[in-house]
Amino acid sequence: MLVRVYVGNIVHSLNANELEILSDGIVGVDEKGKILFKQTGSLEDALLAHGSYYNIDDENTIAEVEIVETVGNQFFVPGFIDTHIHASQYPNVGIFGHSTLLDWLETYTFPLEGSYTDTNRAAEVYNKVVSRGLANGTTMASYYGTIHVPATVCLAQIAQQLGQRALVGRVCMERFCPEAVQDASIESDRDFVDKVLALDETGQHVKPIITPRFAPSCTMETMKGLAKLARERDLPIQTHISENSREIAWVKDLFPECENYTDVYDKANLLKHDTVLAHAVHLADSEVEVIKKRDSGISHCPVSNASIASGIAPIKSYLDKNVKVSLGSDVSGGFTTSILANAREALLMSRLLSERTGNSNDVLSVGNVLFIATLGGAEVCNASNFVGNFAVGKQWDAQLINLDVEGSPVDVFSWQLPKDPVERIEHLVHKWMYVGDDRNTAKVWVDGKLVVDK
Ligand SMILES: [Zn+2]
Question: What is the whole-number distance in angstroms between the Cα of residue 84 and the centre of ligand 1?
Fold first, then answer.
C-alpha cells in the first residue's frame, strides 16, 4: 500500500555514464519502503492513478499519504554505499604520520585492532563509526571488524540497531603480525557466520562477509578454506589487492607459484561475483581481465590512496572496460567516513592521472563518481537488485540534500542558477559535490525508514 510520496528534485544514476535528473519527480513508496512507482508530472494524477484519493485543494485529504517535497535548493539522491571501511580503525582517523602501507599497519593499526578483546571498547567505537557514516549519508557499508568474534558480532548488532545496512567481516589473519591479532581458524569464521546470519534472515540488513585480510596475512591453504566456506554458505568475500608497490613485490615473493597478485586470489578460488577487492591501484591489464571474467568488483579508496601515498587507480579505464567499481572510505588509511569526500577526491585524482598519462579519457565526471558512490557500490556488494538507485521495485535508501541548511558550506546565488530546471539541479549537484559536506545531508532513509533527521 502506498504510504509516502517523495516529490520534486530527484537525482540518481541509471548506469556509470547516465544520471537521471527530474525536477518534477514523484516516487511512491509502500509501508515496507519499496518503490512502487517513479514518474513525473502532476502529483494529483499520480496519486489517483495509484489508488490514493488526493485533492490538492482539500487539506483534509492530504493525510492519506505522507508527502515529502523538496523546497528551494534541495534534492533527493540515493544513499551512499561505502564498500571498504575498517570500523575497528575509526579511532585512528587522521593519525598516520609519514607512514606507507606496511609500516602504517605495524605502527598504528595492529596495536589498536589487538585491543578489541574488550567488547565494551568495540561497542563504543562501532556506535560512533556507524552513526558518523549515517550522518554522512552512508546507508550501506562493507565493514572489516577485527579477528574477535564477540566484538565483530557486536558491530553487526549496532548497524542493525542504528538502521544501516552492513556486510560485516571478521578479519582472518595468521602471519606477519603480532600474536594478538592472529586467528585464522575456520571454526571462528563458522561461529561468526552463524551468529550474524541469525540476526537477519533476509540478509538485506546485516550479512557476514568472508574476510581474509590480504594475501600476505594468510597461507594459500587458509584462503582456499575461506573460499570454500563462502561458496558453501553463499556469502560475499572482501580483501585488499594491489595497493602499494612494496606490498605487490612482497606478494610475489610469498607466492612464487602465482603469476601476479590477482592470480593468488584466483588460485585460492576467492574471486566470484560478490568479491569486493579494495584499492586495485597497480593492476596489470591481464589482472583486470581476470577480475572482470570472475565478475568481482573493485572498491576505489582515493582518500586513503592519497593519504598513505599508495598511488592513483585508473578508475575511468576500469569503468570503460565494464569492470564493476565502487567507492570505499578505507577508514583509517582514509581519514574520513564521508563518501562525498571520497567522490570528490576520486574526481581530483582522475584529473591528476590524466595529466600524467596525457589521456583525457582518464578524467571522471560528476556523474561517474555519483554512480560509483551509489549504484556501483550496490553492484559490487551484489545488492543492486534492492538498492543503489530509485528504480521501481527497489527499497527507498535515500538522502535529502539541502544546500540552504543553516551553516551550509555551500553558498548558492539565485541569479547564477540556470533557468532550465534540469540544468539548475545539475548546477546544485556540482556545487554539493565540490563544496558540500554532512551539514547538507538533512535526512537519511533506509528501507523507507527515516534514520537521520537533522
Ligand atoms: Zn583497507
Answer: 6
ipTM surpasses 0.85: yes
Cell of 292: 572482470
Q: Is the pLDDT of residue 98 over 90?
A: no
Question: Which residues neighbour 73 within 8 Å (Cβ) at sequence distance 6 or greater?
Answer: 402, 403, 404, 412, 428
Whole-number Å distance, alpha carbon 83 to ligand 1 midpoint, is 10
Residue 191 pLDDT > 70, yes or no?
Answer: yes
Kindly give the distance from the C-alpha atom of residue 87 to the centroid of ligand 1, in angstroms, as a whole number.
10
Measured CA distances, 11 to 144, 283, 446 (Å): 30, 33, 17
Identify the architecture of domain 80-380 in CATH.
Alpha-Beta Barrel (3.20)
**% of the chain at pLDDT higher than 90:** 91
The domain segmentation of the chain, as residue ranges, is: 2-78+389-453, 80-380
For 2-78+389-453, CATH gives 2.30.40.10
**Cα 276 to middle of ligand 1, angstroms:** 11
Give distance in angstroms: CA of 89 to centre of ligand 1: 10
